[in-house]
From TrEMBL:
<keyword id="KW-0028">Amino-acid biosynthesis</keyword>
<dbReference type="InterPro" id="IPR045865">
    <property type="entry name" value="ACT-like_dom_sf"/>
</dbReference>
<dbReference type="Pfam" id="PF00800">
    <property type="entry name" value="PDT"/>
</dbReference>
<keyword id="KW-0584">Phenylalanine biosynthesis</keyword>
<protein>
    <recommendedName>
        <fullName>Bifunctional chorismate mutase/prephenate dehydratase</fullName>
        <ecNumber>4.2.1.51</ecNumber>
    </recommendedName>
</protein>
<comment type="pathway">
    <text>Metabolic intermediate biosynthesis; prephenate biosynthesis; prephenate from chorismate: step 1/1.</text>
</comment>
<keyword id="KW-0057">Aromatic amino acid biosynthesis</keyword>
<dbReference type="InterPro" id="IPR036979">
    <property type="entry name" value="CM_dom_sf"/>
</dbReference>
<dbReference type="GO" id="GO:0009094">
    <property type="term" value="P:L-phenylalanine biosynthetic process"/>
</dbReference>
<dbReference type="InterPro" id="IPR036263">
    <property type="entry name" value="Chorismate_II_sf"/>
</dbReference>
<feature type="domain" description="Chorismate mutase">
    <location>
        <begin position="1"/>
        <end position="84"/>
    </location>
</feature>
<comment type="function">
    <text>Catalyzes the Claisen rearrangement of chorismate to prephenate and the decarboxylation/dehydration of prephenate to phenylpyruvate.</text>
</comment>
<dbReference type="GO" id="GO:0004106">
    <property type="term" value="F:chorismate mutase activity"/>
</dbReference>
<dbReference type="GO" id="GO:0046417">
    <property type="term" value="P:chorismate metabolic process"/>
</dbReference>
<dbReference type="InterPro" id="IPR008242">
    <property type="entry name" value="Chor_mutase/pphenate_deHydtase"/>
</dbReference>
<keyword id="KW-0413">Isomerase</keyword>
<dbReference type="InterPro" id="IPR001086">
    <property type="entry name" value="Preph_deHydtase"/>
</dbReference>
Length: 367
């Protein structure tokens, strides 16, 4: 038996042990879920999970393996949370659009075990979460090319009982999709969302295709599948091709390879977000007094305490003409704690007219 075969045999034996341990772990997770059902406690406990990660990662003797083990534990805890949500009936997630839309794709990656609810508008997603019909809502928040989704930001402002519990970035790759048997040479018309058509403008011009705008990329793919015309193609995702039985005629037709959409997860929470410090982002909504220097004073407080401001956005204040509210996203300093985050908020409350902690979360690099 050579070295590779020996290693594979050892891995098989370890995997068998891990399968038994996994069942034991999930049985314990079920007991945790029963306790949370009785007490009404939330599934996610940021402080507890941070402590578990630190304690267990420190147990490894090989320091080089610690970041990999930490990632392994994070995945294990994500699976545990998903199982608890199913047991507690808190596994429903809502999105806007149709199957195959980017919000649906993001939802499936973030909540692969969830029950999925589709709504026609972003506002309906917010309302479903607010009513409790859905535990989570997955919504686009910002695009690296097109900027922020202002409507979603305004909905966050007008739904004070909802928080942002998670944020993730998802690279957007658009493909040209056609019916089985179609060829690139035989295509004459391309349908898709106007933004997808614009981002693929160079490709479309090179081939001289006529274009037709559509409500969204997924529905464009559905239309192509239904009309079954090899001369009509859609710009949409590879996941959408699988969903509607289409084939990829050309991959990555959007010109900007760095096209990324940032999605947020909203949920209803009776308690404010838990701040743990280092590694977190803090999302704040605030209004400043309508006097010279007031906004600058708020930003000075943020910088003085070592919090890096990743972004700032302003939007019209509802029902107050020509005044504005602000959204800022902060990165907690290395080594900071929840106490230091709270001290920042206490300081900002003295400088702001209103202040709301919208979310405290880690940013997932990719959904």
């Amino acid at each position: 038996m050579d070295l590779l075969q020996q290693a594979r045999c050892e891995i098989d034996a370890i995997d068998a042990e891990m399968a038994a341990l996994f069942e034991r772990r999930m049985q314990a997770v079920a007991n945790v879920a029963r306790y949370k059902a009785e007490t009404g406690k939330p599934v996610f406990d940021a402080v507890r999970e941070a402590a578990v990660l630190e304690k267990n990662t420190a147990r490894l003797q090989d320091a080089a393996l610690r970041p990999y083990y930490r990632a392994f534990l994070e995945e294990a805890m994500a699976v545990s949370r998903a199982y608890q949500r199913v047991m507690l009936g808190r596994d429903t997630a809502a999105y806007q659009g149709v199957e195959g839309a980017w919000s649906h794709i993001a939802l499936r990656r973030l909540f692969p075990f969830s029950r999925q609810l589709s709504f026609a508008t972003w506002g309906e997603v917010f309302d479903a979460v607010e009513r409790g019909d859905a535990q989570f809502g997955v919504l686009p928040f910002e695009n690296s090319n097109a900027g922020d989704v202002s409507t979603v930001l305004d909905l966050l402002y007008t739904h004070p009982d909802l928080i942002v519990s998670r944020m993730c970035d998802m690279p957007i790759r658009q493909d040209l999709l056609g019916v089985p048997g179609a060829t690139l040479a035989g295509v004459h018309t391309v349908v898709s969302h106007p933004q997808a058509l614009a981002q693929s403008g160079v490709f479309l011009q090179q081939h001289g295709f006529a274009t037709r705008p559509w409500s969204n990329t997924a529905d464009a793919a559905r239309h192509v599948a239904e009309c079954n015309d090899p001369g009509v193609a859609a710009i949409a995702s590879a996941e959408t091709a699988d969903l509607y039985g289409l084939q990829i005629l050309a991959a990555g037709v959007n010109a900007d390879g760095d096209n990324t959409t940032r999605f947020i997860v909203i949920e209803r929470s009776p308690e404010p977000p838990v701040m743990t410090g280092a590694g977190q982002r803090l999302a704040l909504l605030f209004t400043a007094r309508h006097k010279p220097g007031q906004l600058a004073a708020v930003l000075d407080h943020i910088g003085a305490r070592g919090f890096n401001m990743e972004c700032i956005k302003s939007r019209p204040l509802p029902h107050v003409p020509f005044e504005y509210y602000f959204y800022v996203q902060l990165v907690c300093p290395a080594g900071s704690t929840g106490t230091e985050c709270q001290a920042l908020l206490d300081t900002l409350r003295t400088a702001c007219s209103t202040l709301r902690l919208l979310g405290a979360f880690t940013l997932d690099a990719q959904a």
